[in-house]
UniProtKB/TrEMBL annotation:
Gene3D superfamilies from the UniProt entry: 2.40.160.20, OmpA-like domain (3.30.1330.60)
UniProt KW keywords: Cell outer membrane, Ion transport, Membrane, Porin, Signal, Transmembrane, Transmembrane beta strand, Transport
Membrane topology: Multi-pass membrane protein
Protein name: Outer membrane protein OmpA-like peptidoglycan-associated protein
OmpA-like domain ranges (all copies): 240-354
GO annotation, cellular component aspect: cell outer membrane; pore complex
Localization in the cell: Cell outer membrane
CDD domains noted in UniProt: OmpA_C-like (cd07185)
Compositional bias segments (type: Pro residues): 229-241
Keyword Ion transport appears in the UniProt entry: yes
Protein's UniProt keywords contain Iron: no
An annotated Gene Ontology molecular function: porin activity
One GO BP annotation of this record: monoatomic ion transport
Amino acid sequence: MRANTWTLGLGIVVVAVLAMVAAGPSRAEQVPEGFYVGAGGGLNLNDSGDFDIQGVGRDLNTDLGFVGLVNFGYAFGNGLRAEIEGGYRQNGVDEWGGVGLDGDLSAWHTMLNAIYDFDTGTSLTPYVGAGLGAAIVSIDAENNAAGVRMDDTDVGFAYQAILGAAYDITENVAVTADYRFFHAVDLDHEISDGRGGGPGDDYLNHSLVIGVRYAFGKPSRPQTMPAAATPPPQVAPAPAPAPSVPTSYLVFFDFDSANLTPEATSIVDTAASNALQVGRTRIEVTGHTDRAGSRQYNMVLSQRRANAVMERLVAQGIPRSEIAVFARGEDEPLIPTGDGMREAQNRRVEIILL
């Protein structure tokens, strides 16, 4: 029993230490760098096994007990922590080698622990740890009828392995839950069954502990460079509205004439200039006459007047392909008159910019 216990306990401690070494320093701490305190309590299962007397091993049976812990430590900000731990365990004693007993098996301990927190990037932080220290183990149990009495205290070397996880409630407060394998070795207790005393055995325990931890340090946050001021987006200026120009012009002619007067020429030039300015791509030129003369003659005269205006527009830079020429004769008078009547307002050419 003793060899198996040592092998199991030391194996768990070695695995915990190797896990801490292999993990290496973490880029982000889970416990803020600085001092912290903690406390916890839970269930304790004692598995001490045989207690020897005069070379005869007898199985010591205990009830499920309790454990209470307090600790004070320092977090280095890279996942590693070092702490001092104090605690107390107690289990009731039922029997020893078939002899019923009434009493307790208990221990006070002090440990120096090394713990490593695994950064998960979340509020949940697994951790592993190992500790070395000393335990003061006491047994106080008896069966007066059988003449058996165990009442002794001894101090022994102790070690433990820790496997658990913490959940951050706030930046500085966390709830912890862990399993602890605790072993104190080479203990000598005076045990009497009416035949004299003898050495006891090891003190081996499995514990489940729930606790709370408060960190005094401030969580470090990655330094961020202030963002460069972003210039406001350049908004393209709205295109300037096209200049507003007249789209309709009237060019008047003398009686029975297709020649442009100086006033008529000025109006045609204005129409051409405005068309070029606003980029019109089609210009309609329509010739008209009054009702003096025959219908056939007036149709030809209105065509000559429209051609005269068209030629002047071309001379001012308007492409011929953009000009549509029409002749209406006397059919669309501006001012209605009787047949054969002269009317200056009807002797005209209309220019329409489209």
